[in-house]
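Hi P.,

Sorry for the delay on this. The queue was packed all week, but I finally got your sequence through. Input first:
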Amino acid sequence: MPASADFVRSRSLWLDELSDLAERPALPGDATADVVVVGAGLTGLWAAYHLAVARPHARITVLEREVVGYGASGRNGGWAGSGIAGNPRVYAKAAGWDRTLAAARLTEAAIDEIGQVVRDEKVECDFVKGGTLVVAANAPQWRRLAQGFESATRLGTVEPGSSLLAPEEVRSMVDVPRVAGGLYTPHCARIQPARLVRGLAEACERRGVVIHEHTSALSVERGIVVTDRGRVRAPQVLRATEAWSGQVAGARASYLPLTSMMIATEPLPPEVWDDLGWPDGLTVRDRRHLFFYAQRTPDGRIAMGGRGAPYRLRAPLAEFGQRDQGVWDRLEHTLREYFPQVGDARITHRWGGVLAVPRDWSMSVHYDPRTGLGAAGGYSGHGVVAAYLAGRGLADLAADRRSDFTEAPWVGHRSRRWEPEPLRYLAANAIVRVLNGADAYEDSTNRRARRTRILAPVLPPG
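Then the structure:
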């Protein structure tokens, strides 16, 4: 049963802000194409867009189970930020440091490339490149931040123009009550993600791409996608299903689906923003283990997200609900702790979205020219820029074009599979419990929590 427009709007602030949620027709029956893309999120649409640019006469069909932007592409934090989606050392072990360092620069350039397409295609998605401020609220957070910066400097992966900040420099950007230091990088843009993905869909359609919504892919095989509406045959099949890959027969990826939760305040009056000193376009996050990430929206809200939602053994992709109230409460507490200037401003939106985490937290892109099958995913929360890099890489591989995107170290990378259930379930919830406890310990003692060492093999890099 297709989701109603009201239900889709309730999935995030970003979707609720859309004035037009006109639906596209489902697949009418069996069809043929030159390329079929499964998934109309950012990865699939970037792949379709760049393929349409490279091969303007190709018949490209995109299949989407719900509507464009329904999944993570319409629910994320609204950051187009740099940084490799994975562990640089993991990539370098197989691809070498030269390719890994080039990939770090590629993530930075991708932000400007997204911005250029936004301008060229006149996508109104509030794209403002204002950078990111990382706030360390206590001594352990500051040590992690400084050590991470120093390590990246040694490896050569540090982002050009980024710098460590003294407490007074942090407060000159955003006036937070507790700060031991910070870091600023210019390589991040604030966006309205639902407008980006839906504007990208329209740009694809102007180039001849056909998008079918409310069409569930049941299996992906060489030369054919079987759906609940019919079969689509094509010599090239690109799967961009990320966290939902496990629901498609023939999808080999094994991801841990984790949920990131978000809240948004009502629009705040100008005097609150004057007190905060928070400039338009600047994104802000902290250095806790279960960190928050936040943006200032064009209409004056704070939209804040964070990890920590419970993993559900029987339904890991189930929609958010009252069971997630504890995470929303923690986010609201964090909001008022870090930004007390908001006072008793109402929380008007609460939502969540699923992200795909590989066993080594490192993304991958695959394409086999013999079979015409391609796939990408495993962004571990770096979705907006990682989806651009992956979609562009899939397009270039399918078009048989060698580029920086096809030479990136995540092309051909394979992560080992997660442990079977219920071990995966136990690991996911153990991660949340230990990290939450570590943050509470560090907040109360100002000393480093060493308990995270026991989870080192399954924790994200950095």
